[in-house]
Specification:
There is one protein chain. By secondary structure, the chain is mainly α. It has a single domain (73-309), classed as MetI-like fold. It has helices at 6-52, 73-79, 82-113, 120-132, 135-145, 152-161, 173-201, 205-213, 218-246, 250-255, 267-276, 281-309. The longest helix has 47 residues, at 6-52. The protein is globular and about 75 Å long. It holds the Pfam family BPD_transp_1. It is found in: Cell membrane. It is a multi-pass membrane protein.
């Protein structure tokens, strides 16, 4: 009978444990540089902003570095201001309308491009152009198109409906807000279109062929095949689109010339004004924390709801 050396067995076991531990921690070492970078550029500013939200930071004491602690005073001022609630409602309307049209038009165009069409490559390039153009260039272009006297939009309206159809897009806050929505819808459709198109191309054609054999209509195929299989793709895209739209500063700030009127701004433009026009940095930091919590709550709720539905 062969004798087993206990020392050799112990040595072999230790080597095996070491290799196992090395294999276990190896991915972490590769991820460590990315984790450190994320901590520096995301976590540190976030915690610093939370700290500033409990302090009174203004232009007068900015360079001194000595910021008096005011507790929850900044938050109390925000929640007792009627402007916060009206701007929040306007921001919700802005986000819902934009995301709805982004998803609906984007999905429609994706379904159209997923079929056999003449010149489909050229059509795809044309439809993706709004996404390729920088936002501030697009916003400036749309601002020129909304000009009361020389803008293309009013010229088209006058040509179709007469001289009285001209709209004061840039001087009336309500029309300025609508102009911002139109511009942002145009900018956001290509993103949803490309995401949806990628999801559609991953759906097997056999499912549609089986549905055709069963006599399913186009709506039934869309409802029972396309939408359920697109959910894993559309859910993160809708969350990202909601966050981006909720925090959209460029379009509103450029088209409304700095959001001079309170009736044409959303929460992020209001934060921008409080920080860089009124120099109330602590107040703006508290405002930013509230926006972060709103978006975090929405994202968590939406993703959880989608999982429960699945």
């Amino acid at each position: 009978m062969m004798q087993v050396n206990p020392k050799a067995l112990k040595k072999k076991t230790k080597a095996g444990n070491y290799n196992l531990a090395q294999t276990k921690w190896t991915p972490l070492w590769f991820l460590l540089p990315a984790i450190l970078i994320m901590a520096i550029i995301i976590l540190y500013p976030l915690f610093y902003e939370i700290k500033l939200s409990f302090q009174n930071v203004t232009l007068m004491n900015l360079t001194s570095g000595k910021y008096p602690t005011v507790g929850f005073d900044n938050y109390i001022q925000i929640f007792t201001d009627k402007l916060f609630y009206t701007t929040l409602l306007r921001t919700v309307i802005w986000t819902v309308v934009n995301v709805f049209f982004h998803v609906s038009f984007g999905l429609f165009l994706a379904i159209l491009l997923n079929r056999k069409l003449p010149g489909k490559g050229l059509l795809r390039i044309i439809l993706i152009l709004p996404w390729a153009i920088p936002q501030y260039i697009a916003a400036l272009t749309w601002k020129g198109m909304f000009n009361v006297e020389y803008g293309a939009v009013n010229n088209i309206l006058i040509h179709l409906f007469g001289n009285n159809a001209a709209v004061s897009w840039l001087s009336d806050p309500h029309w300025s807000f609508i102009a911002c929505i139109i511009c942002n819808i145009w900018l956001g459709i290509p993103f949803m279109m490309m995401i949806s198109l990628g999801g559609l191309q991953s759906i097997p054609n056999e499912l549609y062929e089986a549905a055709d054999i069963d006599g399913a209509t186009s709506w039934q195929k869309f409802k029972n095949i396309t939408l359920p299989l697109l959910k894993p793709v559309l859910t993160p895209a809708i969350v990202l689109g909601t966050v981006w739209t909720f925090n959209m500063v460029n379009v509103i700030y450029i088209i409304t010339s700095g959001a001079a009127s309170e009736e044409a701004q959303i929460l992020v433009t209001l934060v921008y004004k409080k920080a860089f026009e009124y120099y109330r940095y602590g107040y703006a930091a508290a405002f930013s924390v509230i926006i972060f919590l709103i978006l975090l709550s929405f994202s968590s709720f939406f993703i959880r709801a989608q999982k429960l539905e699945d």
